[in-house]
Amino acid sequence: VEPSAERCVSTLLELIQTKVNYVVQEAIVVIKDIFRKYPNKYESIISTLCENLDTLDEPEARASMVWIVGEYAERIDNADELLDSFLEGFHDENAQVQLQLLTAVVKLFLKRPADTQELVQHVLSLATQDSDNPDLRDRGFIYWRLLSTDPAAAKEVVLADKPLISEETDLLEPTLLDELICHISSLASVYHKPPTAFVEGRGAGVRKSLPARGGSATHEEPAQPTVIPNQLHGESLIGDLLSMDIGGPPPAPAPTSNLDLLAGGLDVLLGGGPEPGPTSGTTGLLGDIFGVTTAPASYVPPKQCWLPADKGKGKL
Are 49 and 16 in contact (CB under 8 A)? Predict the structure, then answer.
């Protein structure tokens, strides 16, 4: 927030005066962001920052300090000496610091070309010939081609005015913000656009809304489970599925009378009685399904006559 930026810078300067190494480095990183947000407003503290240049050992803090020196090189008298001190251990620096050094030296050359021509040739040689980092080499070749072809075009590209950092959430409508919160896990919240903006030729989709925040929200009663009517009567599940009427158990066979040996009982034993036929009882489950009748309960083979009555003469 702009009204509190000046107070924030004053507090950061007090922290830098403590000379605590990690505090100084974090303060320089934050001050770089403030310079980016409010350019050409707090340049008076640059001299204080340069006093702590030798104590910086974190890559992010060193890269931030190099950016500040390159951005305000025209206001720092010994900017070339400060950057040259970093180039002594160029290959030992972090890739982030190397990229910032390359850009800062090119900025210094475009602002003071007469004094820094040898310095820019040295850093371009380090970046393009002695480095294995492809990003650093590509940027070095681009700067080299721009400077050798058209220095005026290089100045327009490298020293162009940067867009101001602004808070985009202040520019969004409250209704859109409420809708984006419902789609926080989708690309709509990333691009700050409603989901309907990504679909061409279709009408507006259904908008999600947040639930009411009041404490008097009504709770719906859970639906009662549906009970199958047949289960209430205890019927069989197979009978319910196949719509079959399964009868009760088959009736017990009628008891047979005792064998009368004197009144024709011998004829019954020797084959005089009729063969039992198939029982006409209730068919089984498979018979109901396939429409067939069941087989006889047992098979009785035909009886063979060993002694005719005329030859035996009634004797056994």
Answer: yes
**CATH 1.25.10 residue ranges for the chain:** 2-158
Q: What is the pLDDT of residues 87-138, one digit of tens each?
A: 888 988 999 999 999 999 999 999 998 889 999 999 999 999 988 899 999 9
CA–CA separation, 192 vs 177, rounded Å? Answer: 8
What is residue 250's predicted lDDT score, i.e. its pLDDT? 58
Q: How far is CA 223 from the centre of its chain?
A: 33
- Tell me how far apart the alpha carbons of residues 112 and 80 are, in angstroms, rounded to a whole number: 10
Task: Write the pLDDT tens digit of every residue in 201-228.
Answer: 655 455 555 555 555 444 555 555 555 5
User: Please, what sign has the CA dihedral across residues 191, 192, 197, 198?
Assistant: positive
Q: Are 165 and 36 in contact (CB under 8 A)?
A: yes
The pTM assigned to this predicted structure is 0.54
Domain range 2-158, CATH architecture? Alpha Horseshoe (1.25)
